[in-house]
Amino acid sequence: MSTLIEGTSSRWRQARVQPRAGDDRSRLAIYVLLRLTGLVLAVLVLGHFTLTHIIHDVADTGSTFVARRWGSTLWILWDWLMLTAAVTHGAAGLWIAIDDYTPDLDSRSRRHRALLALSLGAVALGTVTIVAART
After folding, report:
1. What one-character DSSP code corresponds to residue 58?
2. Cα(52)–Cα(82) distance, rounded to whole angstroms?
3. Contacts 24+ apart (CB under 8 A), 104-108
């Protein structure tokens, strides 16, 4: 399939563009995932902000506040969910950008795999950090 795209100059050039990877169902799933993680993040981040900046005075926030907070399993889970939702939300957005702006099917596949590896690595590193801070 050929289509015309605008180059960096004022001239038009013809480029080969392959169809997007995946079907409409996979794009819909990524779209829904992006919206759901955005909603979850809104609740988690606003809750975090409310606790840290409104309920408690910022001037009184110190190591004892953090130690008490991280002594609770609820807040450990809260922070881990916030981390996981943020990484998932960012990865879903980048997935769509890769689909839209990478015309070559092989390059798109390599970039998707790299994105998955980096995202899993970020969640694993964050999980290790949260668990290590707990002990």
Report:
1. G
2. 14
3. 104/18, 105/18, 105/21, 108/21
Residue 55 burial by Cβ neighbours in a 10 Å radius (0-12, 13-18, 19+): exposed
Q: CA 62, CA 115: separation in Å to the nearest integer?
A: 36
Q: Which residues of the chain have pLDDT under 70?
A: 1-23
Share of the chain above pLDDT 90, in %: 54
Cα(22)–Cα(47) distance, integer angstroms: 36
Long-range contacts of 68-74 (CB under 8 A, 24+ apart): 70/133, 70/134
Domains observed in the chain:
22-134 (1.20.1300.10)
pLDDT digits 0-9 by tens, 37-73: 999 999 999 999 998 888 888 888 888 888 888 888 9
Strand ranges (E), 1-135: 2-6, 12-16
* pLDDT value of position 17: 56
* pTM for this model (two decimals): 0.78
